[in-house]
Amino acid sequence: MTHPDFLWRNPDPKPAYDVVIVGGGGHGLATAYYLARNHGITNVAVLERGWLAGGNMARNTTIIRSNYLWDESAAIYEHSLKLWEGLSAELDYDLQFSQRGVLNLAHSLGDVREGRRRVNANRLNGVDAEWLDADEVRKFCPIINVSGSARYPVMGATLQRRGGIAKHDHVAWALARKADAYGIDLIQGCEVTGFELSGGRVTGVRTSRGPIAAGKVALAAAGHTSVLAALAGVRLPLQSHPLQALVSELLEPVLDCVVMSNAVHVYVSQAHKGELVMGAGIDAYNSYGQRGGVHVIEAQMAAALELFPLFGRVRVLRTWAGIVDVSPDASPIIGPTPVENLYVNAGWGTGGFKATPGAGWVYAHTIAGERPHPLAEPFGLDRFTTGALIDEHGAAAVAH
Amino acid sequence: MLLIDCPHCGPRDENEYHYGGQAGIPYPLGETTDEEWAAFVFLRDNPKGWFRERWFHAHGCRTWFDVERHTVTHEVRKAR
Ligand SMILES: Cc1cc2nc3c(=O)[nH]c(=O)nc-3n(C[C@H](O)[C@H](O)[C@H](O)COP(=O)(O)OP(=O)(O)OC[C@H]3O[C@@H](n4cnc5c(N)ncnc54)[C@H](O)[C@@H]3O)c2cc1C
Ligand SMILES: [Zn+2]
């Protein structure tokens, strides 16, 4: 076997682009790809201060689902899920997208009511959803402890069979390769340090590799969005928090679906290679430190062991954190900003991996056109003033 | 785990506390515009660096107090 060719060039920045995307994670890359694919806009640079997809894109637990409560969320996440269903073929790259089913467990009467309500709401929105009682949960995932004496009794679960996981690195590489093939410049080691502003409009960015003029500037910087926006004089309703996850040593196949429990802040799946991948809830405080407290991992493990007594002897291989951008209603912010030609796509917080293609699609449309994409429109910044929040704390809650 | 100095109890583990976010956000007095109200409810600073924030010693003396904490190094110092 020969070493594969490099998947993208490593170009030096040009003096000017039609669109400069700040941040080369999944969302930045998907936005670049769809700008070219859907809108024929290829004079585009993606500026990444580190290496491509070394931020949250490399750190997430890759859960993909679309069973959100509200119409606006269901629409955008379902759009994304539909794109996932054709993405490996379209990008000509095996994304290891595996629709193995996602369970969201209910541990209390409140959870049961919320879950059943969400199943009904999902169905009305054309999103596949089922309610399983405890016995059906046991049949679907035999290693969950559903006994009545469990500390977190399982009273049922929602199931989205079309949900699952994908291989995050492959997703980033596949998008990068295609964007590069369209002639888009993916520029690594290029940190945006400021903006050229004139008359309330952005005309370029300052970077660690010199100034770059831009027709439009699109932020896709996840946890660092507030820092960037502040450089343009824009305050955003975002708070940056560490979100931790971990993997175990490699195991034989033991778990063939995704299990999430909002109430006890744990979600787990088994990656193709064999490691258990588990995520926690966010650390409470604001941080850009890409690390969190051990007690958060400990609490998450304690809950995981209650649900899966079988994991008692499994050893943790590695823990890490990413910095997630949390919005007040646990929904993203997509659209224009008070600065003309400056766009924002942020606030995906703990759950933006699943949205990678969908966010890229609607963000590209929003940047290319005169108006936000209809699926993005409800997620504009103005909702915090009008009060038209899209409160997904129930469905997004902790994480995933 | 952070070690946070409660003004009443001294240094204690982070998990005795509840986080309160940015300090010094006064309730707006008098009439507010929609924009001002939205800013009061939803807009908080989110700096990369020193941050003045509130902590509640929930499992201790139940006092609210302010500290300054660096959001990259997590170093904690007395609020000035
Ligand atoms: C532990 C963890 C688990 C998660 N689990 C899930 C999950 O199971 N399912 C799910 O859907 N979502 C999950 N998420 C959330 C998901 O990872 C994010 O919402 C999503 O990755 C954010 O978009 P992105 O890929 O573009 O972000 P990132 O990959 O973080 O990309 C942002 C990029 O911007 C760059 N950048 C920042 N500042 C600058 C600058 N000044 N100049 C140039 N570049 C800059 C960064 O270096 C970074 O590469 C999880 C997140 C974490 C941390
Ligand atoms: Zn105290």
UniProtKB/TrEMBL annotation, chain A:
One Gene Ontology CC term in the entry: cytoplasm
Entry-linked InterPro entries: FAD-dep_OxRdtase (IPR006076), FAD/NAD-bd_sf (IPR036188), Rhodanese-like_dom (IPR001763), SoxB (IPR006278)
TM region(s), chain numbering: none
UniProt EC number: 1.5.3.24
Molecular function terms, GO-annotated: nucleotide binding; sarcosine oxidase activity
Coiled coil: none
Domain of life: Bacteria
Primary location class: cytoplasm
Keyword Metal-binding: no
Pfam families tied to this protein: DAO
Keyword Flavoprotein: yes
Protein's cellular compartments: Cytoplasm
Gene3D superfamilies tied to this protein: D-Amino Acid Oxidase, subunit A, domain 2, FAD/NAD(P)-binding domain
Sequence ranges assigned to domain Rhodanese in this UniProt record: 19-63
Requisite cofactors: FAD; FMN
UniProt keyword list: Cytoplasm, FAD, Flavoprotein, FMN, Nucleotide-binding, Oxidoreductase
Reactions the enzyme catalyzes: sarcosine + (6S)-5,6,7,8-tetrahydrofolate + O2 = (6R)-5,10-methylene-5,6,7,8-tetrahydrofolate + glycine + H2O2; sarcosine + O2 + H2O = formaldehyde + glycine + H2O2
Gene Ontology biological-process entries: tetrahydrofolate metabolic process
Stored PROSITE patterns: RHODANESE_3 (PS50206)
Family statement drawn from the similarity comment of this UniProt entry: Belongs to the SoxB family.
Protein name: Sarcosine oxidase subunit beta
Origin species: Nonomuraea fuscirosea
From TrEMBL, chain B:
InterPro entries: SoxD, SoxD_sf
Gene3D superfamilies for the chain: Folate-binding superfamily
Top-level taxon of origin: Bacteria
Biological-process GO terms, alphabetical: tetrahydrofolate metabolic process
Pfam families recorded: SoxD
GO molecular function: sarcosine oxidase activity
The protein's name in its UniProt record: Sarcosine oxidase subunit delta
Taxonomic lineage from the root: Bacteria, Bacillati, Actinomycetota, Actinomycetes, Streptosporangiales
